[in-house]
Amino acid sequence: MIGIAMAQVVVLLILLVWWLEIPRCQQSEYQVVEFYSGVGRIAELAAKVGFVAAAVDKDYGMDYAKKNTKRSPMDINSNAGLILAIHILLFGEWEQICAFYAIVCSSWVPVNRGSTGRSIMTPLGCEDYPNVRASNKMTSRTVILIWITVLMGGTYFMENPQNSLVALHPRYIWMLGQLRKIDVFTYKIAFWMRKYSSLSWKRTWVWSSTPLIRALDLGPLTEQERFTSRPTTTRYKDAKGKTRFKGNTNLKRSQQYTYKFAGKLIRLVGEVRKQKVHLPIEVSSDSIFNLFEKMKWDQQSIAWEQEADLRKVLQYARGSKLLRLWMVRHLESRVFSSETLVAGVDMVEMGAGLPSPPSDTFELMQELASLEAMKAQMEAEVKADIDEPVAHEDPYGRAGLAEHTGATGEETQED
After folding, report:
1. What residues does each domain of the chain span?
2. Spatial CB neighbours of 330, under 8 Å, sequence gap ≥ 6
3. How far apart are CA 53 and CA 35, in angstroms?
4. Where is the signal peptide (predicted)?
5. Which residues partner with 324 through β-bridges?
6. Which of 127, 258, 299, 385 has the most other CB atoms within 10 Å of its CB?
7. How many beta carbons lie within 10 A of that of residue 80, not counting itself?
8. How many C-beta atoms surround the C-beta of residue 324 within 10 A?
9. Mean residue pLDDT across the chain
């Protein structure tokens, strides 16, 4: 047990996902996970230098979604998508996993505040708008993933453009307050993406549980960097003569990480993995079921359930054919086939989001050449571990799995 308040509804979701027996994903032990990964350059570089990496993005599952008339298996706002994301983390490398979260920023940045109603005083915006509700839900669910990352002893990195209001989301602020109680702090750094060969200046913020992110700031822009930057918006006047802005072709490219920036992050991963995170874990002789029953379904649970829309996710996990929990056989249950969830696992295992061939071979080769020293060091450490194996106990063992059987009942279509 870790001595901080955790919403019971979130703990219940984590337990249900822990008890899902999803083929293949169980053995992966990912070391680097890139969520909202787009072209997946962090995961791509990580894999090339020897890390076990995964890239997760809604777009990777769109072909499956169209073919099967379902939602993308990697859409975190779907039932299967959130469960897949949690499962990837839980079966990642404990105390070493590094997770990157580039939350979709369009709803949180200043340019769209007129259509979202967001401000410092009203960060959740006007929730009458579906796109605002979807962004709030996505951020709430991302906070759950960040929370899991930190409590596993891992390190998280969250990125958004400067002046984004994403860090003012109530669930994120609440989580930061809880983590401070166990001396886990979040650090923030501002820097110019232009320093990493981006097309535009793009002032950027990164939040992380490691102070090592200070290395991302490469200083102020030079005159040449300012002069050669390309604008991402075009000004025009509407019918009433008012000046307006619209994104141009450079805007989409500015949203993709360069290999130079991805390489910098991979170097940070190498440094972070040398440090050990020691969380104040209290060993309890109580069963996990008794510990859970002692928790209260309080206002925090209600807030999480509503803001992250967790009720349907709980029903999906609770009714999944993949659930392996002995008590389920005594209860009536709708059973979901979980085809979408399994499809998502297959996509991750097959390297969805890891381009082959790479989109920019020359830039990739340059960055890989500079990472060779780190790759050689990693290989030497792996060899040392093989020569002198150390037994690792798992203090987080799966209580309740010894006698489990699958749930039975009528099969129904998932989301």
Report:
1. 8-412
2. none
3. 11
4. 1-27
5. 406
6. 258
7. 30
8. 18
9. 80
Burial of 58 (0-12, 13-18, 19+ CB in 10 A): buried
Long-range contacts formed by 376-385: CB under 8 A, 24+ apart: 377/270, 378/49, 378/50, 378/51, 378/270, 379/50, 382/50
Largest CA distance in the chain: 75
Q: State how far the Cα of 182 lies from the Cα of 1, in Å rounded to an integer.
A: 12
**Per the structure block, which two tokens stand in for 280?**
């104040």
In this predicted structure, the answer to whether residue 256 has a pLDDT above a threshold of 60 is: yes
Mean pLDDT confidence for 48-75? 91
Assess contact for 316 and 309: CB atoms under 8 A.
Answer: no
Q: Which residue has the tokens 């080769």?
A: 365
Q: Based on the number of CB atoms within 10 Å of its own CB, is 50 exposed (0-12), middle (13-18) or buried (19 or more)?
A: middle
H or E element at residue 225: helix 223-228
Sorting pLDDT into bands at 50, 70 and 90, what band is 227? confident
Tell me the one-letter amino acid at 202. K
CB neighbours of residue 274 within 10 Å = 7
Number of Cβ within 10 Å of residue 399's Cβ equals: 16
Tell me how many helices (H) and strands (E) the chain has.
Answer: 16, 10
pTM: 0.81
